[in-house]
């Protein structure tokens, strides 16, 4: 699984940014940032790019759409956990 390969190659404990593109079958599509509760995983969403436009910092009411690029920040474990939640729940 690609996520596992990427995860093993990253130093743990160091904050990083990671972009996740939401496909039409991604778990996050149609849900809000508050519903996903990525903060509980130790991750923060710093930006959402929609149709090539970079929006400001998303709020808890931000509802994700197909094609959104979600920029997640956290240590490597948190970022991997956030990507899994965004894509598969």
Would you kindly provide a written description of the structure presented here, covering whatever features stand out?
With 89 residues, the chain is an alpha+beta fold. The chain has a single domain, classed as Alpha-Beta Plaits, CATH 3.30.70.1450. 27% of the residues lie in helices and 24% in strands. It is built from 3 helices and 4 strands, in the order αβαβββα. The protein has a 4-stranded antiparallel beta sheet, covered by helices on one side. Strand 2 and strand 3 (53-54) form a beta hairpin. The protein is globular and about 30 Å long. The two termini are 16 Å apart.
Layout of secondary structure:
Elements: H1 2-8, E1 16-21, H2 33-36, E2 44-50, E3 53-54, E4 69-74, H3 76-88
Proportion of residues in extended strands: 15-25%
CA(first)-CA(last) distance: 16 Å
Strand count? 4
Percent range of helical residues: 25-40%
What do we call the CATH topology? Alpha-Beta Plaits
CATH class: Alpha Beta
Low-confidence stretches: 1-8
- Using the alpha-carbon principal axes, give the shape: globular
Gyration radius, in Å: 12 Å
- The neighbouring-strand order within the major sheet is 1-4-2-3
Run of helices and strands? HEHEEEH
- The tally of domains stands at 1
Going by CATH, the homologous superfamily would be Regulator of K+ conductance, C-terminal domain
Biggest sheet descriptor: 4 strands, antiparallel
Task: Name the structural class.
Answer: alpha+beta
């Amino acid at each position: 699984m690609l996520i596992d390969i990427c995860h093993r190659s990253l130093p743990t404990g160091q904050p990083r940014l990671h972009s996740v593109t939401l496909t039409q079958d991604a778990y996050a599509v149609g849900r809000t940032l508050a519903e996903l509760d990525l903060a509980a995983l130790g991750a923060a969403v710093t930006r959402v790019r929609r149709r090539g436009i970079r929006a400001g910092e998303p709020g808890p009411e931000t509802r994700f759409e197909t094609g959104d690029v979600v920029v997640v920040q956290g240590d490597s474990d948190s970022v991997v956990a956030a990507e899994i939640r965004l894509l598969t729940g």
